[in-house]
Amino acid sequence: MNWSTAIRKLFGVAPDAPVDYDLFLSLLDAQDRDRTTKAVQQSIDTGCNFDVQYRVHRQSDEGHWVRAVGTTINGPDGIPARLSGISAASSPVCARMAPRFRCI
């Protein structure tokens, strides 16, 4: 995983810390992990975009909402090779209004 400086700050991860999918999941609220995993897996399985919101718990706060929108990028062989997308701070109000996950 390649995270920008802004994403590292959003998730509370040090600039030089290694990041992987397990670390990402560990930073999510336990109630949001399964739903987020399903949205990402659906994108990998079907090629659809993902749009998911989850709570992130940094060491410095009680948690905040993040919205991630992205897609699966296939390699030259047509097999999913990576995910690409954006993540941004969200709000609890937006999170309540949004579907729990969707394929767009």
From TrEMBL:
Question: Which InterPro entries has this protein been placed in?
Answer: PAS (IPR000014), PAS-like_dom_sf (IPR035965), PAS_fold_3 (IPR013655)
Q: What is the lineage of its organism?
A: Bacteria, Pseudomonadati, Pseudomonadota, Alphaproteobacteria, Hyphomicrobiales
Domain PAS as annotated: residue spans: 1-47
Kindly give the SUPFAM superfamilies that the UniProt entry links to this protein: PYP-like sensor domain (PAS domain)
Recorded superkingdom: Bacteria
The protein's name? PAS domain-containing protein
Q: Name one Pfam family in it.
A: PAS_3
